[in-house]
Amino acid sequence: MPSPFPGMDPYLEGHWRDIHAGLVIYARDALQGVLPGPLRARVEESVLLETPEGLGDHPLFPDVRVVEYTSKRNTEAPRSTGVAVAEPLLVDTERGPVVETFLEIIDRESGNRVVTVIEFLNPSNKSPGPNRARYLRKQREVCSSDANLVEIDLNRFGIHTLAFPLEHIKTRGRTGYMTCVRRATLRDKAEVYPMPLWSRLPVVKVPLRPTDADAPLDLQALVEQCYRNGAYEGTLNYAVDPDPPLLGAERDWADQHLYEKGLRTRKKPPRRKGKPKSG
């Protein structure tokens, strides 16, 4: 069975490492079959060094390295109990770097020149601190180069980080999920895809070389593949609010929608605007 949501399933955000990895790989596979002959989609990675100031309130999932040190052995002869007891090693754990993956479309005919960078934004990209500063620096560098930038934000945690000022979109066009396309041939403009919770995710037009037609990238198909291949059916608790919680009209719609799907025992009343009347 597919996800009960017609577009992005906000409950998948609680499994972001798995979802992000799937989105990158499935997007590569989808693009590979529609790119012009000399172009290739490649998965690349960057390493982010996490600091306490950059962690924020949202959990990040760095690798853990275990470094072995020689422990002092007890010189006293062990008592015989008839059961072999394993002696543990004393180790220190270190927080390792977070590795983030992204996509690059390269041109093999021009020495593997980068044509387009595709980013699925992570919470670390949207949290105040050195990692967000590093991402914004990369964002500026791509936008000032001869490469295109496609940013896909399917994670509601954090602050606006896409490569356009949020105030340039009217309030009704601001959604929890959005995609931004910056073309190298149109540097002073951004193509923005608002993606409301109740709508199917769009097919994004991925720009390539100036002489190429855009490559279609079906975001809804990618999310559905993540849901299906990750075997999320029956594992997500739709009876409680997702993390982070939905707000405003999206929360009201989700309450009603999940109630109609039989995934909540009762529909929550709509949130009223302004101060509620007292008895």
Give the tally of structural domains. 1
DSSP helical segment count: 5
> What's the gyration radius in Å?
23 Å
Major beta-sheet overview: 6 strands, mixed
Give the DSSP E fraction (strand runs of 2 or more residues).
15-25%
Identify low-pLDDT runs: 49-75, 274-279
Helix content: 10-25%
Average residue-wise pLDDT: 83
Question: How far is it from the N-terminal to the C-terminal residue, by CA?
Answer: 45 Å
What is the overall shape? globular
Element order: H for helix, E for strand = HEHEEEEHEEEEEHH
Strand order of the largest sheet: 1-4-5-6-7-8
Structural class: alpha+beta
Tally of DSSP β-strands: 10
Folded structure, characterized:
The chain contains five helices and ten strands; from the N terminus they run αβαββββαβββββαα. It has a six-stranded mixed sheet, sandwiched between helices. The chain is about 20% helix and about 25% strand. It has about 280 residues and is an alpha+beta fold. The radius of gyration is 23 Å and the shape is globular. The longest helix has 17 residues, at about 15-30. Strand 5, helix 3 (about 130-145) and strand 6 form a beta-alpha-beta unit. The two termini are about 45 Å apart. The protein has one domain (about 10-60, about 90-240).
